[in-house]
Amino acid sequence: MGLANQLTILRIFLVPIFIICLGYNKPLCALAVFTLAGITDALDGYVARKFNQVTTLGKILDPIADKALLISSFIFIYNSDLNVKFPFWFVVLVISRDVYILVGAAIIYLIKGHLDVKPSIFGKMTTFFQILTVVFVLLANIVNIPETLIMYLIYITTFFTIISAITYTYEGITQLKN
Prior knowledge:
With 178 residues, the protein is mostly helical. The protein is built from 6 helices and no strands. The termini are far apart. The model has no long low-confidence stretch (mean pLDDT 94).
C-alpha cells in the first residue's frame, strides 16, 4: 500500500475525530481536523499522480473518504450545539444530491455494465463551495463572521449543488443512450 492510499485511509480515520470535536462543541478542534483532512485529500491525489501510485483501491476509497467527511460535516454541524449551523433544507439538499447521483450511477452501471465517470466543472465547484461553506461555518463559531456572508455562501453552494445535479443527470442520460 502506497503513501497515497495511506493518506486516504488517514482521512477516513479523521472523520470520527472530526465528529467527536463537534459533539463536544469544539469548533476550533473540528476546523483543525477538517483542515488536516483537506490537506490529506490534496496530498493523496498529488502523490498518486506524481509517483504513479494510482490504484483501484485509491479510486474507490478516495471518493468514499471525501463524501464521509463532507456528509458528516453537514449532518453533525446541523445537529451540534454550535451557534452557527446549516439550515435543515440545505443539509437535505446536499445529501439528496449525493444520493441521487449515486443511485443514478448504480442504475447506469446495472443497465450498461459499465460506468464512465467524468467529474464535471460544476461537480468540482460544488465540492469547492461545500468545503468553503463548512470552513466558514466552523470559523463563524470561533470568530465573528457576519451571518449574511454565511448565507451568501450557502446560496452559492446551493446553486452549484443544483446545477451539478442537472449536469450529471444530462451526462447519465447521454450514457444510457449510447
